[in-house]
Amino acid sequence: MIRSTLEKILPTLRSICADDRVLIDTASLQAYGVDRTTRWQPCPCAVILPNSIDEVQAIVKCANTHELPIVPSGGRTGLSGGAVAKDGELVLAMDRMNKILDFNPIDQTIRCEAGAITQTIQEYAEQEGLYYPVNFASAGSSQIGGNVATNAGGINVIRYGMTRDWVVGLSVVTGAGKILELNRGLIKNNTGYDFRHLFIGSEGTLGIICEATVRLAPAPPGRSVQVLGVNDFETITEILSIYNSGLCLTAFEFFSDLALDKVLKHHKLPAPFTVRTPYYVLLEFEHKDDRDLAIALALFEECNDKQLVSDGVISQNQKQAEKLWRLREDISETLAPGKPYKNDISVNISLMPDFIRAVDELAQQSYPDFEIVWYGHIGDGNLHLNILKPDALSAQAFNQRCADVSIQVAELVAKFSGSISAEHGVGLLKKDLLHYSRSDSEIALMRQLKQVFDPNSILNPGKLI
Ligand code: MLT
Ligand code: ZN
Q: Which ligand sits closest to the CA of 327?
């Protein structure tokens, strides 16, 4: 039915965007119809690449008239199926709207189109002597619009927060086809409901983000990285408290020896130190002078005396820091070809030791025969539990078994008042688990909001709620 709708509206779509920006060839449909999840087969009816907010508005209006669902698409680096078009939807891709529109040195903001690449924004800020601090492994291909739609987090969250903390303005086209200018870059604006924050993290279900204004931070001082060998998973939060007492941490990450092993083999890298331990902490701190470096060494000694760490290494320069970061940042990409089953869960940091113990017990009981790769952003309470598929098991049987266990994981998360999706979003993947983190009343209100902004349910139907 959607295909016959498409036939009808192709001439209109081509009158909005020139022929070469309405794609229906198989390669484009395959490429634009998925994100980094591998569970679903891409099957959009077409891909459209607008050049302006007016074109976006015209496309949304046309889709409303003909009841053609739209999947908004950014860099498609998501891990929850939020940008998957599997049911003949029209993919509205922001690739052509990728310009930096304005830099304001007094307000210290950048205004850009939604398709601007995260790294381009970071580099632009750096050239101006400033800093856009939201950063993650996929910064080279993710787009700011997608970051906003998923409230992307990453590796600097404990120091700088998530995308939400940096967005001071948005231009959006709602599902009903209205253009809204939200907050206009203001720092102070107490004029009722702040719709900007409603759109941040809405996963393309309320409107299409077309422009964003982000504020910038002062250029950070130098940073050093330490990697520590840890024998006991549960002591990691104690190490965090010790380091927090003396340094300004920008990251506090952890990974298991299995994760390290896979990265070392995949990238032919050397181990950070000779003695291997079951777990590792990678922490990064800002240092204004040598005093902070001396503090870092003293804190390491303190952890060592308390037998919390068994070995450690500290970067001596930027290049070494980058090499150490690869041990953590390359895990996701290293595991990806094996199509791991991913959990992205969080609890308050104070509950982490008990939570980790409970998740570990459950994982050992439920997956005695599977490889489990642990890593995550312990500094902000976020654990990534990746289950690897044994070669002998079919993808379907593997996913089914993991899906059954993830209900038990979600029950644990609910018991600890945590989140079933800390930073990857809900999309298609976690939709059925949403009620473990959000009450029935909240979900009912979400549905009502969806109805207000997107009355014909044109935008990303089937995602999130
Ligand atoms: C990460 O922390 O590496 C990212 O969230 C990606 C992932 O979990 O695979
Ligand atoms: Zn992560």
A: 1
Pocket-testing residue among 37, 254, 332, ligand 1, by greatest number of atoms within 8 A of Cβ: 332
Across 238-249, average pLDDT: 97
Tell me: pLDDT of 2 over 80. no
Which ligand minimizes its atom distance to the CA of 328? 1
pTM of the model: 0.96
Give residue 250 CA to ligand 1 midpoint distance, Å: 17
Instruction: Note the pLDDT tens digit of each residue in 23-64.
Output: 999 999 999 999 999 899 999 999 999 999 999 999 999 999
Residue ranges lining ligand 1, Cβ < 6 Å? 137, 331-332, 384
The pLDDT tens digits of the residues spanning 356-371 come to 899 989 999 998 889 9
Rounded to the nearest angstrom, the distance between the alpha carbon of 14 and the centre of ligand 1 is 38
Q: Assign 3-class secondary structure to the chain.
A: CHHHHHHHHHHHHHHHCCHHHEECCHHHHHHHCCCCCCCCCCCCCEEECCCCHHHHHHHHHHHHHHCCCEEEECCCCCCCCCCCCCCCCEEEECCCCCCEEEEECCCCEEEEECCCEHHHHHHHHHHCCEECCCCCHHHHCCEHHHHHHHCCCCCCHHHHCCHHHCEEEEEEEECCCCEEEECCCCCCCCCCCCHHHHHCCCCCCCEEEEEEEEECEECCCEEEEEEEEECCHHHHHHHHHHHHHHCEEEEEEEEEHHHHHHHHHHHCCCCCCCCCCCEEEEEEEEECCHHHHHHHHHHHHHHHHCCCCCEEEECCCHHHHHHHHHHHHCHHHHHHHHCCEEEEEECCHHHHHHHHHHHHHHHHHHCCCCEEEEEEEHHHCEEEEEEECCCCCCHHHHHHHHHHHHHHHHHHHHHCCCECECCCCCCCCCHHHHHHCCCHHHHHHHHHHHHHHCCCCCECCCCCC
All domains of the chain, ordered by start, with CATH?
Answer: 2-96 (3.30.43.10), 100-218 (3.30.465.10), 222-332 (3.30.70.2190), 339-446 (3.30.70.2740)
Closest ligand 1 atom to residue 375 Cα is 2
